[in-house]
Amino acid sequence: MIPNQGKAGQDLPAHRIADWRLRQVVDDTHQLSKVGGFLYLFGWAVIGWLGDVMAFAPRTALAIGAGLLLLALLRLWMRPPVDGDPAANRRWLRRFALVLPLASALWAGVQAWILLDARFGADTRLVSLIATIGYATVFANVYSTVRHLAAVGVCVLFVPMLVVLWSHPGDRALAVAMSFYAMYLAGALVRSHAEYRRRLQLDLALREQRDLYENLSRTDALTGLYNRRHFTARLDQLAQRAQQGGAGFILLILDIDHFKQVNDRHGHVVGDACLKALADRLQRAFAPHVALLARLGGEEFGVLFEGSQADALSAAEGLRHDLVMRPLECDGQRITVTASMGVGAFDAGTHGDGDGLYRAVDLALYEAKGLGRNRVKSLQPANA
Question: Using an 8 Å Cβ cutoff, are 235 and 304 in contact?
């Protein structure tokens, strides 16, 4: 297939923007969280050493460590889909939203155990609370790519701890402090998510600006077709592909007959309108999935066509006949124009490269003009 078919400079539709945002959320969520599970494992290693858990609950200690390791590895294994299909991205995000809080839930159980079991000393309790605060803060600020996911993680970590602290009269001061910090985390989560959304919007604006400049660099401003620069680059690429045994292609060059008379008689505004109307006729004459259309300059247009020379000639003759039978709508005026065309298939042995084919087809175009204009002149196949 010939890439970049038809007209250039098309704006991204709303569903494409939504799909791009979804893909960004999926990629960012995975990148931010894929190694986070190991933080819980590290925290448990510190707690287990500090509280000497192996001395009084070795099986439980090993089971907790194994569970945290398994969940950490599961995060690494759950990679986003490569193809970027929106439905696949949504399915991945739903599954990941179920897996991500599991380590937090396990840690919340560990935290409740430490607070309730008198065998853990004050130092171990303090370190575990600091770790829980840290994990909850990470959820609120890092996993803000999906707001409800971050909220679930914070609640899973903080609610069991707050329930235990408020249930013990001796921990009320600590419970009050933790409750205030939970409210701070709620506000931080909202701010972080809003900041992430603004960053996505900025990234999208920069992407659209980049695409706009890229389109402007390869688009003819008047007709919306590709310009000569882009057309020449694609011609060279297709010729190289054909030289290496790839698919062949057809080049057509079209020139409006006596177009200067249109400008002299009706003015350049009408003349420009005629060029735009002809560009629309080209779009209808050549199927967009097999043709790349360009304005080469002035009243000259080019077509790169992937298919047989017979199909290209048929489309060219159909366009020529259509121009004769149906006048162009040019700024409120109906103007009949004719066109001369040169058509030829690329042959590596005869033309050498894209520039060689262009020269040959351009000569065919001028032969058509010399024979009286309003006709299509084709190159003879090399084996004819």
Answer: yes
Structure tokens at 43: 């925290």
Name the catalytic one among 195, 299, 300, 367.
299
Q: Across the strands, what pairs with 302?
A: 253, 294
Dist CA 189 CA 183 (whole Å): 10
Pairing of strands 339-345, 376-378: parallel
Q: Which helix (H) or strand (E) holds 320?
A: helix 309-325
CA distance linking residue 158 with residue 179, whole number of Å: 9
Beta carbons within 10 angstroms of residue 139's beta carbon:
29
Walk along the chain (384 residues) in steps of 10 and give the mean pLDDT of each run.
49 72 88 87 95 94 96 92 85 91 95 95 94 92 86 93 93 93 92 90 80 74 92 95 92 96 93 96 90 95 93 95 94 94 94 95 95 93 54
Query: H or E stretch including 254?
Result: strand 250-256
If you search the block for the tokens 């005629």, which residue do you land on?
274
Rg (CA), the chain: 34
pTM over 0.70: no
Is 10:218 a contact under the CB 8 Å cutoff? no
Burial 5-24 (b: 16+ CB within 10 A, else e): bbbbbeeeeeeeeebbebbb
Q: How far apart are CA 245 and CA 1, in angstroms?
A: 15
Q: Is 367 a catalytic residue?
A: no
pLDDT reported for residue 208: 76
**Cβ atoms < 10 Å from Cβ of 273:** 21
CA 288 to mean position of chain CA atoms: 22
